[in-house]
Amino acid sequence: MYSSCLEAIVLSMVGGLIGVVLGYSILPFLGDYGATISINGGLLGFGFSVVVGIIFGFVPALQASKLDPVDALRNE
Prior knowledge:
- The protein is mostly helical.
- 76% of the residues lie in helices and 0% in strands.
């Protein structure tokens, strides 16, 4: 159970970091539209990505860990 939680944390952190890097790399091209670089925006996006990734990664793993393996394979 702990490995699935760790997996959800790591994957959501990597995804959030990739999203923030891509977002900051696109911002210079949007300067004509009034877009500005904000540290708070990057932290908010990263934090939201991590929270969503943990919730949607941990909850199904927790539900699956409570199932009997035979029943889980039968209902696949």
